[in-house]
Amino acid sequence: MSSKGGGTALTRRNYRLASDTDKPRSTGRWTQRWSNKLNKSRMKMHSFLSFYVTPALCFVGRKPLGFQDLSAHLERLLTEGEPEDSTDQTEGRLGPQPVVLDHTSGFEGLLFVDDDLLGVIGHSNFSSIRATTCVYKGKWAYEVLISSQGLMQIGWCTLNCRFNQEEGVGDTPDSYAYDGNRVRKWNVTTTNYGKSWAAGDIVSCLIDLDEGTITFCLNGQSLGTAFTSIKTGPGVAYFPAISLSFKESVAFNFGSRPLRYPVDGYLPLQNPPAADLMKAHKLLGYIKNVLSTSIDAQEERLVEKDCAAWKLHGDPTILITLAHIFNHFAPLMCKVYLVEDVLMNFLLGILEGGGSVDEHPLIQQLLNLFWLLMEDYEVNECLKQLMMSLLRAYRFSPIIPDLGFQIHYLRLTTAILRHEKSRKYLLNNVLFDVLRSVVFFYIKTPLRVKEAGLEELIPTTWWPTHFDKEGKDEREPKDESADERLRRRAYERGCQRLKKRIEVVEELQVQILRLLLNNKDKTTGEASRYIFLNKFRKFLQENASNRGHPTALCPPEYMVCFLHRLITAVRACWDEGSRKTAAGFSSDDAYVPPQLFYNGKVDYFDLQRLGGLLSHLKKTLKDDLAGKANIIIDPAEIQATSMDDLDEDEESGAAQRPFGAAAMGGALARPSWLSSPTLGRANRFLSTAAVSLMTPRRPLTQPEKVKVRTLAVEQRTEEDNTRTTRTKEDLSDRFDELLVCELVIVRLWSRAEMLKRLFRASELQSFRGSMVVVSDDVHEYAVALKDTEEKIARCPARRADILEELQKSQKVFAEKLNHLSRRLAWINATIYSKEKMLDVYWLLCVCIRTIEHADSTGSLFAFAPEFYLNVAMNAYSALKNYFSPANSMEELPGYEETLTQLAAILAKHFADPRIVGTDIKDSLMQALASYVCYPQSLRAVERIPEEQRVAMMRNLLAPYEQRPWAQTNWILVRLWRGCGFGYRYTRLPHLLKTKPEDANLPSLQKPCPSLLLQRHMAELLSLDKDMAASFLNSVLNQLNWAFSEFIGMIQEIQQAAERPERNFVDTRQLKVCATCFDLSVSLLRVLEMTVTLVPEIFLDWSRPSAELLLRRLAQLLNQVLNRVTAEKNLFDRVVNLRLPGLESVDHYPILVAVTGILVRILVDGDRQGVSRAASVLLSDPCFQLHSIQHLLGEAGDSSGSSGSSSSSGSSAAVGARPAVGSLGSSVAPPISAAGNSSERKHFSLHAYTDYISEEEKQKVQRMLAFLTEESKQAAASTAPTSEEDLCPICYAHSISAVFKPCSHKSCKACINQHLMNNKDCFFCKATITGVEDYSKPAAS
């Protein structure tokens, strides 16, 4: 940001009028023809120059003025009235000029400081830094531009203050600070003060050393005197200072630029350049006089005209005069203060009349004049400083109702970028290299609704007022009262007024992007679109290569706004170009051609491919590339690079720069998002430890790149791009690469959102989730307001004190709701409008078409980058979760067809062998699991072709071993939910009174079973016996593991609770315990679905594994029942602890799942199947009739329950022991102890009338009666069995099988289960070749 225009290394052009003898050596850009014209007009020079250069000095008798002495005359005019040199030390201030941050000794902690020494970013717990100048007398002010709204303390300190990582400005006696994050002031102690600040605000810090006071202002509004009677006197001087936490950033203005909010009587710490300021204003006045004057050649007189109509190709006399003026004006325009205060305000004044930018050609003519009359380095520096000033003004301007400030600055930016030469220079050198240019496309959300004028635009507010038992709005618009309807409509009209004003800003932002995407300015070099694309790709690559460090990513709120404007601009340019060519197609049919994935025309840098590493794919699929794509890969050009080496190369070499500094003050180039509000780089990394913060994994050398035969995008020229013949599949004019960039934005910044949630959980969630956050707040306050109003209605008249408090609460809730409803309107208009929804929907359709075309290439589909699938899933999730209820997906064009296409992609590719990445496989599986949770998307799955549906179900029914099976199981459960026994609930009965974390979670959606997919599952399991056996065996194995893990964990929890000392359980362990329980329940539901749809798998013993599967099922069901239903057992006691993290652990979900299986095999089956099931169940040694009786609350004495032996013991002392809580807290012991257990309610299905139908209860009663009778008959008919006749493996069944050839014996259940995984004999380890039935000889 420092001025570079005053250097002496470059010489200026000499615009002195050449004499006749000097003509051959004349310098400048004037031709001989223009000089001849000029000589002919010398007779009128005196009157001409006197008129528009020195009109006030024109009087009779003055010496005639000619071109030869014009330069001296200008020098004399500029020195008249020049103020005295202001560089001398002003009284009351000590320190150098200019004032900057003290990066040599005045800091503590780790800091990034911009190269102008005015912007700073904290990079440690609590870093502090002060300025180089102090004050001891008088009134002084400086401004701080807030770039992030986190924890910072801004103010003043003395040289004696010593800060550390815990104490900063305001924490020591002689330091004073304001903290807008916590809305407090600090001077050792702290009290409430001021208002909350937000990113984009400006804090003014004022100190009056004559009165001993310190005051702070926010956006020009005084927050009141913060401190009085501060320490003053000899030896006491105050430095501007700041302390800020990790990743917080600000920029200081000590006076190097005009103060945005100057305060009368207070001086900036840095003296303004008064002499240069006066000269600049004088020279600009001369320029305006010249531009508003023309020469009438016929009448030989001067004519006044509107300067807006001036054109560069005018009279040479005027141009020569302007050249002399610019000889003095140009060096001044390299100084940031003068550019912002003089030039920018002059250009803004040109546009004040309104109208379109095209109606003000004067700015274009002035820019032509700049490039003609100024040296290149001068106009470059001037344009850079002008754009920096515009960007700073746009970002830190307050939000007013008509958004006038933002519109004003965007109009001037548009006017400047309309100038071709200026646009190309800015694209090449400024917009991406120096500035945070995407800030131009961001519309900040006002934190203070009243100051933003939203009360004027939206005078009437509205919010939902009727909620169901789950907290959702239950009233339809047709059920509203007349008053509610009027309020809602008035609120919607206000929202529309706000939206129209925001659309004006958005349209200007789109115009800027369309200028940057101009492809018709190739005559003067590379087209703007080509420059923009190359710069933008490097910007994306920088963010992609640093995605592991959240501080290096562009903030999501910027990129979301930029993405929407870029989509609008690209689509407009695309459609405009397609209308001009017969072979073109509209943006509605856009996709990325699959050839780009492997022909090298687009550089995807380090983005992962579906098939793995690109070098690996080129080796393994080189034949396919040669045969299908006619691409020959030379093996010698492919380096065999390991994953680790490739990652290191990508991280270290993307931008060919170091990521950490070796010592304090070392150069460190960083992504632009770690900088001050406008600068894009920082070159100082300050550390009190004098070491680098981040060290690469290995020494940074020239990055090793995989050799590719095609040119990288940065190496290609326009000729390279136009040589290849483009077909209809190739998108013209580089729109293909722009489209790729848009999709990369979505992928990278969806990751940034997750990182931001991790590192800034206390702040507002990422921009895409802001509506959800505000909507939840509106819902909470609306429920609270409704509850308060009901309490007021019930409050007795005699309790006036209670009524008064309730009315205060009612007022607070109503005010908060008014604020939030207006803020929600802003978010809806800027982020979640219908147009934004259509943008995201377009991206979704582009990704779907791209994936479909890539899939058609067969094996070459492996070259497709993973992020196309990720973007499709993210876009669908955004449409489904973030835009409702303001906008509905059903209103989108072709909505159902798009859902079906996406369903086909998920169904086909979640088990696609061409996809090898575990992360993308998991993402596809999770997306499909979420897809089947919602009725509309589930119906889309049912609409895909039957062949694809059957293939999807076959993949879902693959054995669970050696693959992620939890999501697969969840998908099957969702297909069954709503059909199972007591399985029609949305939330568990005991959780209804608690608020869900997110009502939009897939697990909280209403049941929507798919009978069609259930039928496919039944057909597959029925026809493919081997697949059915392996699938069910894996389900039973996982159930055994999950439930065993769950029991083991609750044993540890209970043991911790029984210890007399205070104990804590890690929260993570509690979550794992709850997860194991949920997995057990879901596996039981899959078994219930299988038993219901294909009962013959278990009951038709002609199938090879039916009897074994039935016995295993019975064994597991008995174990679950015994563990859960025994009185005063382990499960019961842990449930009663009600620990945070174990909310889902309860009797109901697991017992109804077991009951559903038992009812199906014991009540709903045929006679033979029921008989077999009862026989197997009763023959299991773990069977306890008491467990079945427990389901209906008919449990008797449980002392004989063998199933509860593991949990029996000193349960009577539970009430005397402290209970165990989650990490960091303990929980009170359960109320129910052994002494009053009779008063506690027993579990009974009869208590869940809203969840279990009468028919289901009757089936349970019939099952209980049947088992009671069968158990009596079995007990009476069972003959004593000799121990020698029992199976030596399980000791539960009689010997019924003999092994061949070793002749060892066991029961059939044991040997069948063993042979599923092993062919060796239990006893002798011989290979078993066969199993025969065994019957005890009659003689014995």
Automatic annotation (TrEMBL):
Locations listed in the record: Cytoplasm
InterPro entries with a match to the protein in the record: B30.2/SPRY, B30.2/SPRY_sf, ConA-like_dom_sf, RNF123/RKP/RSPRY1, SPRY_dom, SPRY_RNF123, TPR_RNF123/RKP, Znf_RING
Molecular functions per Gene Ontology: ubiquitin protein ligase activity; zinc ion binding
CDD domains reported for this sequence: RING-HC_RNF123, SPRY_RNF123
Catalytic activity from the UniProt record: S-ubiquitinyl-[E2 ubiquitin-conjugating enzyme]-L-cysteine + [acceptor protein]-L-lysine = [E2 ubiquitin-conjugating enzyme]-L-cysteine + N(6)-ubiquitinyl-[acceptor protein]-L-lysine
Associated pathway: Protein modification; protein ubiquitination
Classification via PANTHER family: E3 UBIQUITIN-PROTEIN LIGASE RNF123 (PTHR13363:SF5), RING FINGER AND SRY DOMAIN-CONTAINING (PTHR13363)
Name of the protein in question: E3 ubiquitin-protein ligase RNF123
Annotated region (Disordered), positions in chain: 1-31
GO BP term (any one): protein ubiquitination
Chain ranges of the RING-type domain: 1287-1325
Alphabetical UniProt keywords: Cytoplasm, Metal-binding, Methylation, Phosphoprotein, Transferase, Ubl conjugation, Ubl conjugation pathway, Zinc, Zinc-finger
Gene that encodes the chain: rnf123
Enzyme Commission designation: 2.3.2.27
